[in-house]
Amino acid sequence: MAGNSKIAIYGAIGANILIAIGKFFAAFFTGSSAMLAEGIHSLVDTGNGLLLLLGIKRSKQEPDDLHPFGYGKEVYFWSFVVSVLIFALGGGFAIYEGIHALQDPHVIEDPTWNYAVLISAMVFEGTALYIALKAFNKSRASSGNLIKNIIQSKDAATFAVIIEDAAAVVGLSIALIGVFLSQQLQNPYLDGAASVSIGVLLLVVATFLAKESKGLLLGESANPAVIASVEKIMKEHPSVKDWTLPQTMHFGPDSILMVVEIDLIDSMELLEAEKTMLAIRDEIQSQEPTITKVFIQSSNNLHPNLT
Questions:
Q1: Residue 121 has pLDDT above 70, yes or no
Q2: pTM of the prediction?
């Protein structure tokens, strides 16, 4: 999954660098508030992509005494930081610039630069969004509703890029409509209103991303399909009479901690119980490789715990 995430992030960074340069040139030559807001938006998105790459790199550090379960949650932390930056820098500046334009409005005399940059940017952002969606589709469990899959996804880096790119496409559409109507109706207030609208959009996107990243940072359980797979193993094993609901926590997109208590048949000897629990652990990790840490506890008094 990390490889797919990097491909999506590299695509987004490349697109945003080119787009940011074009937007700032257009804003300089035309004085468009919406274009300046969009330029800042692309600049923030570029920085966010670099932070997500940093998170992925740091998440690959080996476990140590201070972090015995590894550093997988680094990517969740940096995804949360990205959401804060989108909120504060992207949304905040866009709203500020829009209000400033509404207080001191002026009609854009020649919007050619704006049209050229916005249309080119939509092509670049659309391509980056396609790459991110393609990477996400390789890792998601089902082909159902995209929003539902993003909410259920544990790959914060990839869904952060998808959310950013989708917001960028919508923001570009708003800017294009604002510039067009402002020019056609000779109404300078529409350009400022477009900038405010882009800001509000970014605030909504940042809030959604922060909520999803916070849940993963605090520790979310594995998807129901993973838990169901583990329970199926318990159900089909002849030596297991009963078990508790497996307790799981994600320490990264591909790293799950699982604790489960099982009740073995009463006639089983200690050595046989150890072998059985070891076999169950190996089968769980074989069928669900994202479960990297398995702790099996026995409710039978004479049976050991297996980690």
A1: yes
A2: 0.78
Interatomic CA distance for residues 255 and 203, integer angstroms: 31
Q: What is the helix (H) or strand (E) element at residue 103, kind and residue range?
A: helix 92-103
Q: With contact defined as beta carbons under 8 Å apart, do 248 and 225 qualify? A: no
Residue 228 burial (10 A CB sphere; 0-12, 13-18, 19+) = exposed
Phi-psi region of 31 (alpha: psi -120 to 50; beta: other; left: phi over 0): left
Q: Which residues pair with 296 in a beta bridge?
A: 260, 306
Give residue-wise pLDDT tens across range 27-36: 888 777 777 8
Phi, psi at 106, each rounded to 5°:
-150, 145
In angstroms, the CA 260 to CA 233 distance is 12
Residue ranges covered by each domain of the chain: 2-218, 224-298
Mean pLDDT throughout 35-39?
79
H helix runs in 219-295, sequence order: 224-236, 270-287
Q: How confident is the model at residue 141 (pLDDT cuts 50, 70, 90)?
A: low
Q: Which of 31, 173, 19 is nearest to 100 (CA)?
A: 31
At position 300, the amino acid (one-letter code) is: N
Residue 18 contacts residue 179 (beta carbons within 8 Å) = no
Q: Are 75 and 56 in contact (CB under 8 A)?
A: yes
CA dihedral 64, 67, 68, 71 (to 10 degrees): -90
Q: Do residues 204 and 47 make contact, with C-beta atoms less than 8 angstroms apart? A: no
Instruction: Tell me how long the chain is.
Output: 307
Is the four-CA dihedral 296, 223, 227, 277 of positive or negative sign? negative
What is the per-residue pLDDT for 257? 92
Q: CA-based angle 8:9:15, to the nearest 5?
A: 95
Per-residue pLDDT tens digits for 161-194: 888 888 888 988 998 898 888 888 888 888 888 8
- Helix, strand, or coil here: 257? strand
CATH fold for domain 2-218: Alpha-lytic protease prodomain-like (1.20.1510)
Q: Which CATH class is domain 224-298?
A: alpha beta
